[in-house]
Amino acid sequence: MSNDLTEATVHVGARLGALVARLSSTLASRALGMHGFVTSRARGLHHAVDVALAAAAHELRTPLAVVRAEAQLLARETGANARLTNITRQVDRLTHLVEQLLEAARVPFGPAPSAWELVDLRQLLRAVVRRFERSPRRHVFRMSAGCAAAWIRGDPQRIALALANVIDNAVRFSPKGGVVDVALRVSGREARVSVRDQGIGIPLRRQGRVFEPLYRPHAGTDHDHGGIGLGLALTRRIVTDHGGAVSFTSTAGRGSTFALSLPVVDRGAP
Fold first, then answer.
1. Contacts of 62 (CB under 8 A, 6+ apart)
2. How far, in Å, CA of 239 to CA of 210, rounded?
3. Residue 190 · residue 263 · CB < 8 Å
4. Residues 128 and 158: beta-carbon distance below 8 Å
5. pLDDT by residue (tens digit) across 24-70?
6. What distance in Å separates the CA atoms of residue 152 and residue 39, rounded to the nearest whole number?
7. What angle do CA 241, 244, 250 make, to 5 degrees?
8. Of 103, 105, 119, 225, which sits with the fewest C-beta atoms within 10 Å of its C-beta?
9. pTM of the predicted protein model
């Protein structure tokens, strides 16, 4: 079973690598101005690429889920070990990348605002934090919530992705471990989630571009910890789509704090 699991993991990784390369090429082309083409043929091509990327990402979800389930089953049967722990960690990383690809290739027929759900942001945030806590990491997640509930209206999967993106960045860019503070506060008609790390921070000269698609402020430096530069761009798009805003403060060598603000609603609101 161990060999089958390893082969499955390699196969999924190869498929995802090809998908990431295609996505990067597509987004780079758009960043260079291809999205400015106004012909219906160009628009149709972009739409077709988005649909293809979304379909490919959907196809990756099932084998990733199978690999993770098999790793968990094998751990229960034989006992957890470093290799199984690493497989689980890498599958979690691949799953997060797939969610980012689905958001990046999002097509217009996703859930419309009229179909959004009433979501308790406190519970959703806690679920996302628990997912990170279950992963084998050297970080301590310290969550505080100054409210019993924070009701918002939106797409819970997209909001969860936005939350996961900023927490993943906090972990990625504090490679020595440490505390990641996650806080939720409600003030007036606004809920604010903040994520603070004790990591390497972002140099001031590079902070103006952190929300650009494919931009990685630490690329080519000793602090380059991978990624494809989509997380923060997608987070801002998701939060903006929900009527909110994203802000941050950062000091090189001391860490960063990212804040997501979303409008709250009454629980009984239609």
1. none
2. 15
3. yes
4. no
5. 455 445 444 444 444 454 455 455 555 555 566 556 666 777 777 77
6. 39
7. 115
8. 225
9. 0.68
